[in-house]
Protein backbone atom coordinates (compact mmCIF):
# COMPACT_ATOMS: atom_id res chain seq x y z
CA UNK A 1 0.00 0.00 0.00
CA UNK A 2 1.50 3.33 -1.03
CA UNK A 3 1.65 6.23 1.34
CA UNK A 4 -0.27 9.36 0.44
CA UNK A 5 2.34 11.50 2.23
CA UNK A 6 4.25 13.56 -0.37
CA UNK A 7 7.43 13.58 1.71
CA UNK A 8 7.94 9.82 1.36
CA UNK A 9 8.84 7.89 -1.73
CA UNK A 10 7.02 4.77 -2.84
CA UNK A 11 9.95 2.63 -1.65
CA UNK A 12 9.73 4.19 1.80
CA UNK A 13 13.45 4.99 1.98
CA UNK A 14 13.10 8.71 2.55
CA UNK A 15 12.37 9.87 6.09
CA UNK A 16 9.65 12.36 6.88
CA UNK A 17 10.95 15.56 8.47
CA UNK A 18 9.79 19.02 9.22
CA UNK A 19 11.90 22.11 9.44
CA UNK A 20 12.77 23.54 11.89
CA UNK A 21 12.81 20.54 14.20
CA UNK A 22 10.85 20.76 17.48
CA UNK A 23 13.93 21.52 19.61
CA UNK A 24 14.73 24.53 17.44
CA UNK A 25 11.15 25.74 17.78
CA UNK A 26 11.62 25.64 21.57
CA UNK A 27 14.87 27.60 21.21
CA UNK A 28 13.11 30.23 19.08
CA UNK A 29 10.31 30.50 21.63
CA UNK A 30 12.72 30.86 24.56
CA UNK A 31 14.87 33.47 22.80
CA UNK A 32 11.74 35.50 22.05
CA UNK A 33 10.43 35.17 25.61
CA UNK A 34 13.74 36.00 27.28
CA UNK A 35 14.20 38.98 24.96
CA UNK A 36 10.82 40.29 26.09
CA UNK A 37 11.82 39.78 29.73
CA UNK A 38 15.05 41.65 29.04
CA UNK A 39 13.10 44.55 27.60
CA UNK A 40 10.87 44.62 30.68
CA UNK A 41 13.82 44.30 33.05
CA UNK A 42 15.61 47.35 31.60
CA UNK A 43 12.59 49.46 30.68
CA UNK A 44 13.39 52.17 33.26
CA UNK A 45 17.16 51.94 33.53
CA UNK A 46 20.30 51.76 31.44
CA UNK A 47 22.07 48.39 31.44
CA UNK A 48 25.66 48.29 32.74
CA UNK A 49 28.54 48.36 30.26
CA UNK A 50 29.40 44.67 30.83
CA UNK A 51 25.96 43.71 29.68
CA UNK A 52 26.36 45.60 26.42
CA UNK A 53 29.30 43.30 25.65
CA UNK A 54 27.14 40.30 26.47
CA UNK A 55 24.43 41.67 24.16
CA UNK A 56 26.96 42.00 21.35
CA UNK A 57 28.01 38.40 21.97
CA UNK A 58 24.32 37.45 21.95
CA UNK A 59 23.81 38.97 18.50
CA UNK A 60 26.92 37.26 17.14
CA UNK A 61 25.83 33.92 18.65
CA UNK A 62 22.34 34.33 17.22
CA UNK A 63 23.80 35.05 13.77
CA UNK A 64 26.09 32.02 13.94
CA UNK A 65 23.17 29.87 15.08
CA UNK A 66 21.00 31.10 12.19
CA UNK A 67 23.78 30.34 9.72
CA UNK A 68 24.34 26.87 11.12
CA UNK A 69 20.59 26.23 10.99
CA UNK A 70 20.58 27.20 7.30
CA UNK A 71 23.54 24.87 6.69
CA UNK A 72 21.72 22.07 8.51
CA UNK A 73 18.66 22.61 6.35
CA UNK A 74 20.67 22.52 3.12
CA UNK A 75 22.59 19.41 4.15
CA UNK A 76 19.35 17.76 5.22
CA UNK A 77 17.78 18.35 1.82
CA UNK A 78 20.85 16.94 0.08
CA UNK A 79 21.25 13.94 2.39
CA UNK A 80 24.72 14.53 3.82
CA UNK A 81 26.56 11.87 5.80
CA UNK A 82 27.63 14.51 8.34
CA UNK A 83 24.09 15.54 9.19
CA UNK A 84 24.06 14.08 12.73
CA UNK A 85 27.20 16.00 13.66
CA UNK A 86 25.81 19.21 12.17
CA UNK A 87 22.58 18.74 14.15
CA UNK A 88 24.49 18.36 17.40
CA UNK A 89 26.57 21.47 16.75
CA UNK A 90 23.52 23.49 15.68
CA UNK A 91 21.68 22.64 18.89
CA UNK A 92 24.76 23.54 20.89
CA UNK A 93 25.03 26.85 19.06
CA UNK A 94 21.31 27.46 19.55
CA UNK A 95 21.56 27.18 23.31
CA UNK A 96 24.34 29.78 23.52
CA UNK A 97 22.06 32.82 22.88
CA UNK A 98 19.75 31.53 25.61
CA UNK A 99 22.67 31.20 28.01
CA UNK A 100 23.84 34.72 27.21
CA UNK A 101 20.35 36.13 27.83
CA UNK A 102 20.22 34.29 31.15
CA UNK A 103 23.62 35.74 32.01
CA UNK A 104 22.11 39.22 31.66
CA UNK A 105 18.79 38.55 33.40
CA UNK A 106 20.04 36.37 36.31
CA UNK A 107 23.83 36.67 36.56
CA UNK A 108 24.41 33.84 39.06
CA UNK A 109 22.14 31.37 37.29
CA UNK A 110 23.58 32.57 33.97
CA UNK A 111 27.11 31.78 35.14
CA UNK A 112 26.03 28.29 36.16
CA UNK A 113 24.33 27.66 32.83
CA UNK A 114 27.31 29.10 30.94
CA UNK A 115 29.67 26.78 32.84
CA UNK A 116 27.50 23.74 32.06
CA UNK A 117 27.26 24.84 28.40
CA UNK A 118 31.07 25.15 28.23
CA UNK A 119 31.50 21.67 29.72
CA UNK A 120 29.06 20.23 27.19
CA UNK A 121 30.88 22.10 24.39
CA UNK A 122 34.17 20.47 25.40
CA UNK A 123 32.47 17.07 25.61
CA UNK A 124 30.91 17.39 22.13
CA UNK A 125 34.13 18.77 20.67
CA UNK A 126 36.16 15.86 22.01
CA UNK A 127 33.62 13.33 20.74
CA UNK A 128 33.71 14.88 17.24
CA UNK A 129 37.44 15.57 17.19
CA UNK A 130 38.19 12.93 14.52
CA UNK A 131 35.28 14.06 12.35
CA UNK A 132 36.07 17.81 12.28
CA UNK A 133 38.51 17.82 9.31
CA UNK A 134 36.06 15.87 7.12
CA UNK A 135 33.12 17.95 8.33
CA UNK A 136 34.87 21.27 7.72
CA UNK A 137 36.01 20.16 4.27
CA UNK A 138 32.48 19.07 3.38
CA UNK A 139 30.76 22.22 4.68
CA UNK A 140 33.35 24.64 3.26
CA UNK A 141 33.17 22.93 -0.14
CA UNK A 142 29.40 23.17 -0.08
CA UNK A 143 29.50 26.86 0.92
CA UNK A 144 31.99 27.66 -1.85
CA UNK A 145 29.72 25.97 -4.38
CA UNK A 146 26.73 27.99 -3.15
CA UNK A 147 28.68 31.24 -3.27
CA UNK A 148 30.03 30.41 -6.70
CA UNK A 149 26.51 29.78 -7.99
CA UNK A 150 25.20 32.99 -6.42
CA UNK A 151 27.94 35.32 -7.64
CA UNK A 152 28.71 34.01 -11.09
CA UNK A 153 26.39 35.01 -13.83
CA UNK A 154 25.93 33.40 -17.11
CA UNK A 155 25.76 35.80 -19.97
CA UNK A 156 22.57 35.15 -21.80
CA UNK A 157 22.51 35.68 -25.52
CA UNK A 158 19.50 37.61 -26.65
CA UNK A 159 17.92 36.29 -29.80
CA UNK A 160 18.60 38.51 -32.76
CA UNK A 161 15.65 39.23 -34.94
CA UNK A 162 16.27 40.62 -38.33
UniProtKB/TrEMBL annotation:
Key words of the record: Membrane, Transmembrane, Transmembrane helix
User: Know the name of this protein?
Assistant: Transmembrane protein
Task: Give yes or no: UniProt keyword Transcription.
Answer: no
Provide the species name: Quillaja saponaria (Soap bark tree)
Which residues span the membrane? Answer: 23-41, 53-71, 91-120
Q: Is Membrane among this UniProt entry's keywords?
A: yes
InterPro entries on file: Ca-permeable_cation_channel (IPR053258)
Amino acid sequence: MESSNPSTESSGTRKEWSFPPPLHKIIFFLVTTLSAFLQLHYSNQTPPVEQSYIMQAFFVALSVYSTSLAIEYELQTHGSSHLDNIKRMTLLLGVLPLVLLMLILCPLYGLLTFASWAIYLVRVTLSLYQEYPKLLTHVSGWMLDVLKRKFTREEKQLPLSL
